[in-house]
Each structure stands twice: as C-alpha cells, then as structure tokens.
Write a structure and sequence with these properties.
mainly beta; 22-stranded antiparallel beta barrel; 5 helices; Maltoporin, Chain A; five-stranded mixed sheet
Length: about 625
C-alpha cells in the first residue's frame, strides 16, 4: 500500500500544473498501412489501432521493442527475466502463437516455435510500429487471430543527418546507438546500428545484443519506387534459471541458478519491394521477403546436481528460413471505392540438430480479396476473404468485415468488425520427436468487437471504449504421457476471451499531457473451466509528459498488472503475483546549433523506480530498479 501511495505522489508531483510555455502542435490522427494494406487514416478504420512512433522512442528512451509495446492497450508483454531474455507478446487473450509479427511486411515468427521473440529485434531505424488488434487472417493468413504488429523501417529524407547516442546504467548496462539518413536526387538512404549489454542480477544473467539496419530507396517515373530494407540482430545471453532439476514443479520464485546454460540467436530480415501507380485508378506492388534465424542452445551438465533424466547435456542448433513473395493490386473508383486483390506464396524450412534432431519443410499458396467503400466522408466499410492452402495441413478460408462511422460535428467515431482466423501448427507441433503429431489441424477462431471514440474540449480530450469477444476452437494443447518428454501436442478444447479496452488522452495544458488506458480480459479454457494461462484480468497504464521549459521534457509511466493463472500439470496450478511498475525519466537539451552539431541532449530513464519485486513470467524475476542515462548528439 505504501508503494502505491508513493507512486501516486510521484505522478502528482510530475504533473503539478503551472503556467507553461507553448508546445509544438498536437499530433494528428496517424495514417496506417497495416490494417488495409493501403494508406488509410486511422479514423476511417473499423479496426482498433495503436501506433508507436519514432518520436515515442526518443521521448521515452525505449531501449528495446518490447518496452515500447508495454503501454499499448490490449497488449501483454512477457519477458522471462532480465534484458535479452526470451520475450513474447499476446493480444486480447490470444497467445503468442496467435499473433502475427512483421518487419516491413515480412513475417518474423519462427516456423519451429511459432512465436516471434521480441528480444531478437533491435530498435534501430524504426519509423513506427503499427498494432492492429483483432483478427487479421484475411490479409495476413495464419497466426493473425489476435492481431498484427508491424515494425516499419524509417525512410531517409532531405539533407544528410546523423545521430549518436551513448548510455550507461546499473547492472553494468551500456548502450550505443547511431544512425545516418538522407536523400539525394532520386535516392534515399537510412542506416542504423545499436549495441546493448548488461550483466543482469544473477550469475550467468548477462546479455549482449547487437543490431544493424539499412533501407535504400529509389524514386522512379509514373509514381513508382523501389525499396530494399535489411535488418540483422545477434543476441547472446546467459539463462540463469535452472530448467532441469530434481525439485518438483512449479519453478521456485527465487530461482535455482544454472551457471552454464547459454543461448545465441542471430536473425536476418530482408525485404525488396516495388510500387507503381501509372494511372490514377490502378496501383500495384510486388514484395519479396526473407527471414532467417540461427539459434544455438547449450546446457552443459550441472556440477552441483545429478542427472535425473539422461542425457543431461543439451546442445541444440536451430536453423529456420522463410521466403515469401506477394503481389498486390489496388483498383480505385474515385474516392469512394478501392478493390484489392493479392496473391502470395511462401515456403518455410526448419532444421534442428542436437539431442532431438528433425527437419521439416512446407509451402503455402494464398489469395485474398478486399473491398473498401467510403460514403460522404462519414461511412467507411471494408470486407474481404482469403483462401490459404498449405502443403502439410490443407486449405483454410477466412473472412472479415468492418465499419467506421464518423459524426464529425460531435467528434464521434463508431467502429466495429468481425472475422474468422486460424493458427497453423508449428514445425515443433508436427515433427518434434516424441512430442509431435503430424495429423494436427489448425486452431480456429471467430472474433468481433465494437467501440466508440470521442473527442471533447476542442480535441484536447480524446477517449475510446471498445468491447471485444474471441472464441477459440480446436486448440493445440498438451496431453501428459508416461514417457519422455512426458507431454505431447493434441487438438483439444475450446476457449474464449472477452473484455473491454478504455483509452484516454488529455492535454491538461499546452505542455502537459496525461494518458490512461485500461484493459479488462475475462478468459476461460472451456475444457478445464480455468483462466487462460498467463493472461491477467486487469492491465492499467498511466502516463504523463511535461515540458516545463523549452529545453526540458519529463515523463512518467505507471504499469499495473493483476495476478496471472499458471497451470503446472495434472490439474494443479499456481498464481503469478500481480505487480506495479513505475518508470520515469526525461531529456534536457544542453545546447543547439553549434558549428555542424544540431543539438546535444542529456537523457535518463529509470525503470521500476519503486524497486518492485515481480516477474512477468513466474519463476523468472525481473530486474529491480534500473537506471540508464546518457547523451544524444545530432548532426
């Protein structure tokens, strides 16, 4: 209770109203690509959309992609410990396997695990992250039941500019980030690199993360362009929490330390796209994408404990690759109609070497159609369907429709949508020795939502309330068996997740903005009549940004999450405690425009300011209070 009171006092102090200087104009509604695959103002979409911008990364000094997503309504981030550890994402009760993650439109989920590990993504060169909540399988095929997260790379513009950023903090944390961008004649370019390292809080809890990104573009006649983007990330980390132990489950809250469990992950993402609009009524886009991930996992025998289930040395090497090609055509009739037709082909390969070797391949062919209609600048409708044929598990159809209606005189937007989705079995589900079943079928879903957004006080108050409902069937779950690995995958059970999302943002003063979003999720596994695993009922985010003077900007962010249900087998379960985390920081401009230097900023970010003892995944303690401060120079 004392901690919560302290949090409220800190927020109140940071937000103390005073007469302040003028601030830059308020941001307009963003233009979003991911929701329809065409540039569309967010207000005209029936879907629920959030956008994390490049300015957000600069204002709040996010060192990782997962930190930037923690404040998005409906989104739950789960990192298994400290910096660099495995990090998954869920949306509206849909688990990490049911959320599609893209980088410049390229899928970055592993075909073996079925999840995108956010720790494998560096924050370099990010222009914005678009988060679309709700089923998106019509546009993005398998694994988009809960929604889509699309990381979009920055395009170079104008004269050459550059930036360098250095930071240091406790836990022996050091960060370096730099970039250069610009355009010349028909060419545009942007390059970025970063390094983040930390020793963590335990022995063997260190991590070392390096990233490089590039985007090169070419403008051509007839409103045409070419663009190539490349991202590389390598993360090496210790895994201090012991996985194999003579102690029974669940994992203890205070972990047993494994001194020699290590993991290395290296990821490549490449995208080549060409666009043209030779006439006003037709535009076409061809995109080629490639995703590769190489992962090495080594858990040597622990000298302090006998081996319970030989062999106890687990060196494994995972190599996965996905290649995809997509051709889109959009046909326009004036302002009121856009018809989109898309064809896609992708092939996936996975190879595992070590104690449990296997290899697998699959290919997928798909086509989709989408129709968008706009009437009187008030009513916006879209509907579409997709057919996707996979060489392993067959053919699936999905459909989606949505609607948005604007009452501009009142500042009101009414929106809603409904659609079906499916989650494809992973290579692990289908082929992992002793665990898999090659006859597994995709999970299915049907979801819908409806909501209203309202602007008040000359748009200084922005509110939104959305109700969502998801039904899941044919879930791929675990069945306990008597031989190693003691579980196997089966199609069994149904589940549901429903709730509300409330979002608000208020410009209290020209230089003081407060935000609050709250997500309530009521979930149930209809087979066991328990909550869905690791899905909290309540999530609350409160934020304040304040510019008391032109050179200084401060922020605070409060995140509260309720307890989460953790099944441990045989009908038994435990709870992961809820937690409250307060982050704060700011930026002070030391000077501006001196010689070739445009600006020099002093910045700081303090996470877990109240030193909360918590874990986003039970048994994997998060860091205590950790601070990072540094300088940023732009040229």
């Amino acid at each position: 209770m004392r901690r919560f009171v302290l949090v409220l006092l800190l927020l109140a102090l940071l937000g103390s109203p005073q007469r302040l200087a003028a601030q830059e104009p308020r941001k307009l509604d963003p233009v979003v690509v991911t929701a329809t695959k065409t540039e569309t103002p967010a207000a005209e979409l029936g879907a629920s959309v959030s956008v994390v911008t490049e300015d957000d990364f600069k204002t709040y000094h996010y060192e990782t992609v997962e930190d930037a997503l923690r404040t998005v309504p409906g989104v739950e981030i789960r990192r298994s410990g400290s910096l660099g550890k495995t990090t998954s994402v869920s949306i509206r009760g849909a688990n990490a396997n049911q959320v599609q993650v893209l980088v410049d439109g390229v899928r970055v989920k592993s075909p073996t695990s079925g999840q995108a590990d956010l720790s494998d993504m560096s924050p370099d060169l990010i222009e914005r992250i678009e988060v679309i909540r709700g089923p998106q399988s019509t546009l993005y095929g398998a694994d988009a039941i809960g929604g889509v997260i699309n990381i979009i790379t920055k395009k170079g513009k104008g004269p050459i500019s550059a930036s360098v950023e250095l930071g240091a903090g406790n836990y022996d944390t050091y960060s370096t980030r730099g970039g250069v961008s610009g355009s010349y004649s028909l060419f545009d370019y942007a390059l970025g690199a970063s390094h983040l390292e930390s020793n963590g809080q335990f022995r063997n809890d260190d991590s070392d993360k390096n990233g490089f990104s590039a985007r090169i573009g070419l403008s051509l006649p007839w409103d045409s362009s070419l663009a190539f983007s490349f991202r590389w990330n390598r993360t090496e980390t210790g895994l201090p929490v012991k996985f194999i132990s003579t102690s029974p489950p669940p994992l203890p809250i205070v972990p047993i330390i494994d001194v020699n469990n290590r993991q290395t992950s290296e990821t490549y993402v490449m995208a080549l796209s060409g666009k043209t609009r030779p006439v006003s009524w037709w535009e076409s886009e061809l995109r080629l994408g490639r995703y590769q991930n190489f992962q090495e996992f080594i858990d040597l025998p622990d000298p302090a404990e006998t081996c319970p289930f030989p062999p106890c040395e687990f060196p494994s090497r995972f190599s996965v690759e996905r290649r995809e090609v997509e051709w889109l055509n959009h046909f326009h009739i004036g302002r009121w109609s856009t018809s989109s037709v898309g064809l896609e082909y992708r092939d996936e390969k996975g190879e595992v070497q070590g104690s449990t070797p296997f290899d697998a391949t699959s290919d997928t062919k798909s086509a989709f159609f989408q129709q968008q209609l706009r009437f009187f600048e008030r009513l916006f409708m879209s509907a579409g369907f997709r057919v996707e044929d996979n060489s392993v598990f067959g053919t699936n159809w999905t459909e989606r429709g949505s609607l948005a209606y604007l009452i501009r005189e009142w500042g009101t937007r009414i929106h809603g949508g409904a659609g079906s989705g499916f989650r494809a079995p992973t290579f692990n589900d289908l082929f992992f020795p002793g665990f898999s079943d090659p006859n597994l079928q995709p999970e299915k879903s049907f979801s819908w939502d409806v909501g209203v957004d309202q602007k008040l006080w000359k748009d200084r108050i922005r509110l939104g309330l959305t109700y969502f409902h998801n039904d899941f069937t044919n879930l791929i779950s675990f069945e306990f068996i008597s031989t190693p690995p003691f579980v196997r995958g089966v199609n069994i059970g149904k589940a549901r997740a429903e709730g509300i999302e409330f979002v608000s943002e208020v410009d209290l003063l020209d230089t003081l903005t407060a935000s609050l979003n709250y997500t309530y999720t009521e979930s149930e596994n209809l087979q066991t009549h328990r909550l869905l695993s690791r899905e909290p009922r309540d999530r609350l985010n409160i934020g304040l940004t304040w510019r008391p003077m032109p050179r200084l900007e401060l922020f605070s962010q409060l995140q509260w999450t309720s307890k989460q249900f953790e099944p441990i087998g045989g009908g038994a379960y435990v709870w992961n405690s809820g937690y409250t985390v307060l982050n704060a920081g700011g930026t002070y401009r030391l000077f501006q425009r001196h010689a070739f230097v445009q600006s020099v900023d002093l910045w700081a970010r303090i996470q877990n300011l109240t030193n909360e003892d918590y874990a986003e995944v039970r048994g994997f303690p998060a860091l205590g209070i950790n601070a990072l401060a540094g300088l940023r120079m732009t040229f």
